[in-house]
Amino acid sequence: MSWTTVCDLRMKSYTNNTSIDSTDFNNDATILGNLTTHPGYVSFHESDDQMEIMVKDDSLSRFVGLRLQALVKPSNFIRRYNIIEGWMSFAFFIESNGQLAGGIFDGQNWVGLDSGNTTVKANKWARVSFEYDGVS
Fold first, then answer.
1. How much is the pTM?
2. Would you list the DSSP string of the chain?
3. How far apart are CA 4 and CA 36, in angstroms?
4. Cα–Cα distances in Å, from 101 out to 16, 80, 87, 93, 115?
5. What is the pLDDT of residue 133?
6. Are 112 and 103 contacting, i.e. CB atoms less than 8 angstroms apart?
């Protein structure tokens, strides 16, 4: 399978509370809530803070496989934290024990996996990824 990047939010360019997508698909993310923008990242402060990407075309609504990557630095693990979520499509998150988990919605059920004994650490940067190849 060949991969095409359809959204790349490098958090280096912000316009009117929007993080600009660096691909040609223009899947920009609107910053909602009390986020603080920094060069290269955003800080989430409250449970309703989020970045929302509106589905404008088929680039985010029709896919065979999916690769999600993020750089995270969780401050605590008092609840589940979504890293990236596509409404009723996919989710990649950190569980309350620091374990990474991800899932794909197949139209009827959520199918998922977790990182087992591997966890992210509080107050440490971690590059995390979730990949679904459309088959396994």
1. 0.78
2. --------EEEEEESSSEEEE-STT---EEEESS-EEETTEEE--STT-EEEE---STTTT--S-EEEEEEE--S--SS-EEEEEETTTEEEEE-TTSEEEEEEE-SS-EEEEEEEEEEPPTTS-EEEEEEE-S--
3. 30
4. 32, 10, 16, 5, 6
5. 82
6. yes
Residues β-bridged to residue 56: none
Name 102's bridge partners.
92, 113
Q: pLDDT tens, 125-135?
A: 999 999 888 76
Among residues 64, 49, 57, the alpha carbon closest in space to that of 27 is found at 57
Report the C-alpha dihedral over residues 10, 16, 17, 19, rounded to 10 degrees. -20
CA 80 to chain CA centroid, Å, is 13
